[in-house]
Specification:
With about 250 residues, the protein is of the alpha/beta class. The protein has one domain: Aldolase class I (TIM Barrel). The chain contains 12 helices and 8 strands. Strands 1-2-3-4-5-6-7-8 form an 8-stranded parallel beta barrel, surrounded by 6 helices. Strand 1, helix 1 and strand 2 form a beta-alpha-beta unit. Helix 1 runs parallel beside helix 2, helix 1 runs parallel beside helix 12 and helix 7 packs across helix 9. The protein is globular, with a radius of gyration of 17 Å. The structure holds 2-phosphoglycolic acid.
Length: about 250
């Protein structure tokens, strides 16, 4: 059985008070209502990592960072290392979100380094991939996204790959209210799993969680998560609302 995962990506949102309230509400609701064994991860902005980890207490929720630098330490003003996020209690790191790729010019080559760095720190990368609307309309989306995996993670060895989580996030569905149909999500996820198998073999491909991201809401989560190759979600907007986020977790 593949691990099911729901990760909330808060992006650059929430004041410190809002972050505390959101965490305590999510912990409160899930401790009463969660009846599945999905892994739940909260990815707050860097400054709230330690606080969020402490506020979660001993409930079964993990913390993740939204990014990290590819070097161990040094003269990189404004950057944050894997050791730092790990020291704050993070267990996961989102790598290669389309917003990082686009606004911060993160290349496949850079992301390949970041993935290795995250694994070397014994953290779990949530490696993001996904196509723009233009690429989808050109009909080249399957090859494009497979290529992102080839460039970003195919340098890993089997032991490293066993730890990785993938998130497929079509850019045209992020924050737009448009979701990929469950058929579109399933088609891509199956294609990506088959692609992983060509490099890492069937066993690793079968056990790698592939999350869907892009306007996941309580109203569409059940159908999307019901697809055989969709193993959970990376949730942006809806993760800022405790009720919605908890309902998405329950939809697994
Ligand atoms: P969204 O964001 O759920 O707001 O579309 C998803 C993401 O960017 O991870």
């Amino acid at each position: 059985m593949r691990k099911k995962v729901v990760a909330g990506n808060w992006k650059m949102n929430s004041t410190i008070d809002e972050a505390k309230k959101l965490t305590s509400e999510v912990v409160g609701i899930l401790s009463k209502e969660k009846q599945n064994d999905a892994v739940v991860v909260l990815c707050p902005p860097y400054p709230y990592l330690g606080m969020t980890r402490r506020d979660i207490g001993d409930s079964q929720i993990s913390v993740g960072a939204q990014n990290c630098h590819e070097a161990d330490s040094g003269a990189y003003t404004g950057e944050v290392s894997t050791t730092m996020v790990k020291g704050m209690g993070a267990e996961y790191v989102i790598i290669g979100h389309s917003e990082r790729r686009e606004y911060f010019n993160e290349s496949d080559e850079l992301l390949a380094k970041k993935v290795s760095k995250v694994l070397a720190a014994d953290l779990i990368p949530i490696f993001c991939c996904g196509e723009s609307l233009e690429i989808r309309e050109s009909g080249n989306h399957l090859d494009f996204v497979k290529q992102q995996l080839t460039q970003g993670i195919f340098h890993l060895n089997a032991t490293e790959m066993e730890k990785l989580i993938i998130a497929y996030e079509p850019i045209w569905a992020i924050g737009t209210g448009k979701t990929a149909s469950s058929d579109q999500a399933q088609e891509m996820h199956k294609e990506l799993r088959d692609h992983l198998a060509t490099k890492f073999g069937d066993e690793i491909a079968e056990q790698t969680p592939i999350l869907y991201g892009g306007s996941v809401k309580p109203a569409n989560a059940v159908e999307i998560f019901g697809q055989p190759d969709v193993d959970g979600g990376l949730v942006g907007g809806a993760s800022l609302n405790s009720r919605d986020f908890a309902d998405i977790v329950k939809a697994i």
